[in-house]
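hey so i finally got around to running both of the ones u sent me last week. sorry it took forever, my laptop kept dying halfway thru and i had to restart like 3 times lol. anyway pasting them below in the order u listed, first the sequence line then the structure token line for each. didnt double check formatting much so if smth looks off just lmk and ill redo it

first one:
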Amino acid sequence: MLLKGENNSILKSTPKPGLFRLAWTREGIEGENGIYEIVDLSGSCEVKYFRGRYLGKGGYAKCYEVTQDISNKVLACKIVRKNLHLREPYQENREVMIHQSVKHPYVVDFHSYFEDDRFMYIILELCEKQSLLQLSNKRGAVTEPEARYFLRQICEGVMYLHEDENVIHQDLKLGNIFITSGMNLKIGDFGLAMELDRFECKQVGTPNYIAPEVVKRTGHGIKADMWSIGCILYTLLIGKPPFETGSLKQTLTKIKACDFEIPKGSNLSPEATRLILQLIQLDPSKRPTAREILMDDFITQGFIPDSLPALSLTEAPPFPSAEDQARLVLARKCAYTVSRLPKLYTTWFQTSRSVLLAFPNGTFQTINFSTQRKILLRPAMDAVAVSVLDSGQPKRSYKLDYTSITRKCAHVITIDLEYSVNNAEIVKPDRKLVKQLLSMKAEMNSLEKKILFKLLWLGTFC
């Protein structure tokens, strides 16, 4: 094998046995990182890659856009300098072995690898829109529909790694979640990845995303990746990492104590807040898995766009109105025709399996029907009415099933009563039912009691 230097002198190189194939490189006048042509001599024919624009760098490598001469395909080339003593040789082998063995729509495609005496080259799929880190730097916080869109793809990729390949990534962060030209996500950089059956207890990862059990070196597993996913979700929705400080020592101290908070005024939905708190908690066993996240209310009960425009890289994209979002959510969830019920204080959508509530603040709640009819009562709350239009009546006749679930009402009463609904109010209340609720709720405060008494005497409640 021959290497040509910048003065066209011939440099001798002896092939070495091992995992990696060998490459021939020509160095440009830019110095040690100025490789402008990379040639893979390992196959039956010579394959050249012409170096293009610089894409970025990590702890041990630099990445460039390259063009393959035969196919003219544009790819990414990760170039790892081999004399970096900070990186042990087996780590390079492990990264290649793991990455070339995985294949998933939300994982960066692995194409080829080879080496020479000074560098190792990993040829990968090019993600043209860079990574979530660049998006976050430009945008700050993203909207919840965008966060759901991104989180679902991340979790599908991570679920594949954990369940199908028995691999823990160990370095999930915004900078390692890449964006394709179609605005889909790809998990990349397997430099710290490890097969679970060969797991080693080491402090690895990126400080802002590293789990406390990793910092403490008490042993960790796939739930360390789930902590990282929680930090990713927090960063997307808030605009900065949860444990970011001015010093590494202070950041690690906050991580070990799980010392973070969701800023006031962030306007996160209850579902988003709950999921973040479930993921970023000290006890790994209580963190949900990737599969469980995909079934969480934050994902299943909220609007997720089918795709995102490139505009999302720099600003919030336009989304359907709250009512249209509700229709899309319910249609996707139940696959039934969505019909609109009379509007009370909020918007309701019904299928034969469930009712979806679209609140004015843009949040949603789905109530699935059960065989037992129940109602949760509280003054001034809306009621979900389920039935068909009675053409023989001047008003629409519905059977009352549920009202909104609220913190201030702890009593569920089974009923099967007919009510007449006229737009915004139920005009035929059951006095006995209201009295029963009043007697049951002894801890009700005085204002609530006055409201109930007033509703009882007026003969109407909403």
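and the second one:
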Amino acid sequence: MPSDHRVIGRRNNSAWARFKLVQEGYLMSDSARGVWEITKVGRALVLQAKEGLS
């Protein structure tokens, strides 16, 4: 277990970000540990954002 509070903070932030993305329907909730699998809704959001950059 890391003793550096910055590492622990980043892990905590990542966990909350993943939780929020799952709740919004952008990531699969049943992905393997460490895998962030995007849903069809998530793909559509990425494509929409990508079009906005062009």
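quick thing i noticed on the 2nd:
Residues 16 and 22 are 10 Å apart (CA to CA).
anyway thats it, ttyl
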